[in-house]
Design brief:
two-stranded antiparallel ribbon, two-stranded antiparallel sheet, 18 helices, 567 residues, mainly alpha
C-alpha cells in the first residue's frame, strides 16, 4: 500500500509542478496585446474585428451560435459518413438520433458515446468530427473562463473581451502546441497514428485477425488535454492502443489536470490576487484527495461476500487482492482508483477500467464528483462553477453577519445571487429530472444490465455524466436508443449552456460595478478559513441535493452487499 500512496503523491506532485508554468502560459495567452500571423489570417478569413469589445450578451451569443453551427456541421458529416473518404471498412452513417447525440456530446465537451468508436466511425469522422469538435469545445470553455475572469477584474465596464480572439488564441497558442507535443510522446510509447483503417495480423494459432487502427495518438492528446474523454475504441483508455504503458496512463492523468489546475494560477495573475488563486487550488485538492481516499479504500477492501477463510476458520480476510473485476491488471487498483477520481473530477470521461464493476462506494465517488462538478472540472467551466459557489459562500456569510456580501471588491446583490442560483440549480434539475423521466419510461428496463439499486445507479450515472459534461459511463447500460440518445443529448446541451451563460451574466454584472474598498466587515476570501467554508458549502449543497438519489443507488447497494445480497 505504501507503493500505492507513492503513486498518488507522484501524480499530484507532477500536477502541482505544472500549475505555475501552465498558469503563466495561460495568463500570457489571454492577456497578450498582439496577434500572431495565423490569428490575423483567421480573423481576415472569417471577417472578425479583433478590436471589437463584447458585452456578456454579445460574448454569450457568439459562443452559442458558433457552437450551434459546428454542431450542425458535425451532425451532417456523421449522417453522410458512408460517402466520405478514408474508410476501407465502409462503415455506415449514424442514425439521426445517434448523430444528434454524438454531435451534441462533442460540442459540449461531454464526449458521451452511445456507440463503439472503431465499429461506428471512419477515420475521416474521427478526425473531421470528433477531434475537431474536441478542440473547439475545449477552446470555447477556455474562452468562457477568460471572459468570466475579466468580468471579475474590471470596474465600471461592459467589456468582457472578444470571443473570437479568445477562442482563436486558445486553439493556436494552447491546445494545438500542447497536443502536438503530447501526441509525439504517445507515438513514441506505441500508439498508432495512421490513416490506414486496419491491418491484418496472423495469430499464434495461424489464424487471420483484422486489427482496427487509425489516427489514435492525435485524438488521445486533445481528448485528455481538452478534458474531452471520447475514445477512439469502445474500450477507451483500457484499450492497449489508447493506453499502451504505465507512462501513458500517468500522462493521461497529468494532461487532464493541466488546464483546470493552471486556471487557478492564471486567475490569480489576471486579477493580481495570487493568494486567491492558491486558495481555490487548495479547495480543489482537499476535495479531490478526500474522494480519492474513498474510492481507493472501497476497491482495496473489495466485496465482503468474497472472503478468504483461514485453515482453522479462526480468521477471514476481505476479498483477496481487493476488487479487480473490470480492471486492467497492468494498472491495478491504485492507478485505476486514481484514474477514476481524476477523470470524473476533471469531467473528462476517459476510463481505464469499467466503472460498472466498481464496488458500490467506489461507484459513488465518480457519481458524487460529477454531481458537484466543481472539483477541478473541465477546461474553464469547472473553475467557473467553483467561483459560483465562492460567491454563494460569501453571500451566506454576509447574511449571517448582517452585511452586504462582497467578493473580490464587488458587492454581491440580488441580481448576482439569482443568476448564481440559476446556474447552481440547473445542474441538479437536469440530472434528477431526466433520471426521473427515464425511470418511468417503459422501455428503460430493456437497456439496463442489472436490476435493483445497481440498475438505478446505471441510469443515474448516465444522466449525471451527460449533464456534467463528463461522458464516462457505467458501461452496463445500453443508451443507443432513440429515447436515450435524445434525452441524454438534451441533458448535455442544458448542462453546458444553462450553467455557463448565467455565470457570464454574473461576470457582466460585476464588471459594470465600481470597486469597493475592504472594510472591517469584509470577509477575506484568500484564507484557509474561507477555503474551509467554501468546501463546506459545496458538500452541504451537494449532499442536500443529491443524497436522496444516491441513497436509492450506491448507498443502499452497499448496505445490501454488507448484508449478503448483491446485484
Amino acid at each position: 500500500m505504501s507503493l500505492d500512496y507513492a503513486q498518488f503523491a507522484l501524480v499530484l506532485a507532477g500536477m502541482l509542478l505544472l500549475v505555475a508554468a501552465g498558469g503563466a502560459w495561460l495568463n500570457r495567452v489571454l492577456t497578450s496585446p498582439t496577434h500572431g500571423l495565423a490569428e490575423r489570417l483567421t480573423y481576415r478569413l472569417f471577417g472578425i474585428n479583433p478590436a471589437q469589445a463584447m458585452s456578456w450578451k454579445d460574448y454569450g451569443l457568439a459562443l452559442v451560435m458558433s457552437n450551434a453551427a459546428m454542431m450542425l456541421l458535425g451532425y451532417v458529416l456523421l449522417r453522410i459518413q458512408g460517402w466520405l473518404p478514408f474508410d476501407s471498412l465502409e462503415r455506415p452513417a449514424q442514425s439521426a438520433d445517434l448523430a444528434f447525440n454524438t454531435a451534441a456530446s462533442f460540442i459540449t465537451n461531454t464526449n458521451w458515446q452511445s456507440y463503439s468508436g472503431e465499429a461506428s466511425l471512419s477515420n475521416f469522422s474521427q478526425m473531421a468530427v470528433i477531434t475537431f469538435l474536441m478542440t473547439v469545445s475545449a477552446a470555447a470553455g477556455i474562452a468562457g473562463c477568460a471572459a468570466f475572469i475579466r468580468g471579475l477584474s474590471r470596474k465600471s465596464s461592459h467589456d468582457l473581451g472578444n470571443y473570437w480572439v479568445d477562442v482563436t488564441r486558445a486553439t493556436y497558442r494552447v491546445l494545438l502546441p500542447a497536443c502536438v507535443v503530447l501526441a509525439l510522446i504517445y507515438v513514441w510509447q506505441g500508439m498508432p497514428q495512421t490513416l490506414a483503417s486496419a491491418v491484418d495480423a496472423t495469430t499464434l494459432e495461424g489464424l487471420k485477425q483484422q486489427i482496427v487502427m487509425g489516427p489514435v495518438a492525435s485524438l488521445e492528446a486533445i481528448k485528455h488535454i481538452g478534458t474531452n474523454g471520447g475514445g477512439f475504441f469502445g474500450m477507451n483508455a483500457a484499450h492497449p492502443f489508447e493506453n499502451p504503458t504505465p507512462l501513458t496512463n500517468t500522462l493521461h492523468m497529468l494532461a487532464m489536470f493541466l488546464i483546470p489546475s493552471a486556471l487557478t494560477y492564471a486567475f490569480g495573475s489576471m486579477l493580481m490576487r495570487r493568494r486567491q488563486g492558491w486558495a481555490f487550488l487548495a479547495a480543489f485538492l482537499v476535495m479531490f484527495v478526500g474522494f480519492l481516499c474513498v474510492v481507493y479504500h472501497a476497491e482495496q477492501q473489495g466485496n465482503p461476500m468474497l472472503t478468504q477463510a483461514g485453515a482453522d476458520q479462526q480468521w477471514s480476510a476481505l476479498q483477496p487482492g481487493g476488487n479487480l473485476e473490470g480492471k486492467e491488471m497492468r494498472f491495478g487498483i491504485a492507478q485505476t482508483s486514481l484514474f477514476v477520481a481524476v477523470t470524473t473530477a476533471a469531467t473528462t470521461g476517459s476510463v481505464d477500467a469499467m466503472h460498472d464493476s466498481l464496488t458500490p462506494l467506489g461507484g459513488l465517488v465518480p457519481l458524487a464528483l460529477m454531481m458537484m462538478n466543481d472539483v477541478f472540472g473541465g477546461v474553464g467551466v469547472g473553475f467557473i462553477n467553483l467561483v459560483s459557489f465562492a460567491i454563494l459562500t460569501v453571500f451566506l456569510v454576509g447574511m449571517m453577519i448582517g452585511r452586504t456580501p462582497e467578493f473580490l471588491g464587488k458587492k454581491i446583490e440580488a441580481r448576482e445571487i439569482k443568476l448564481v442560483m440559476l446556474a447552481v440549480l440547473a445542474h441538479p434539475f437536469c440530472i434528477l429530472g431526466f433520471t426521473a423521466l427515464a425511470a418511468v419510461w417503459p422501455a428503460t428496463i430493456a437497456s439496463m444490465n442489472n436490476g435493483g439499486p445497481h440498475g438505478f445507479s446505471e441510469l443515474l450515472y448516465a444522466y449525471t455524466s451527460g449533464t456534467a459534461n463528463n461522458g464516462s459511463a457505467f458501461a452496463g447500460f445500453n443508451s443507443n436508443t432513440p429515447f436515450f440518445n435524445t434525452t441524454i443529448g438534451l441533458a448535455m446541451l442544458f448542462g453546458r449552456y444553462f450553467t455557463l451563460l448565467p455565470m457570464l451574466a454574473v461576470a457582466g454584472s460585476l464588471a459594470a460595478k465600481k470597486s469597493v474598498p475592504d472594510g472591517p466587515g469584509t470577509l477575506p476570501t484568500a484564507t484557509p478559513l474561507f477555503t474551509g467554508l467554501l468546501i463546506f458549502v459545496i458538500l452541504v449543497v451537494g449532499g442536500l441535493t443529491f443524497l436522496p438519489a444516491l441513497a436509492l443507488g450506491p448507498i443502499v447497494e452497499h448496505l445490501l452487499m454488507s448484508a449478503g445480497q448483491w446485484f
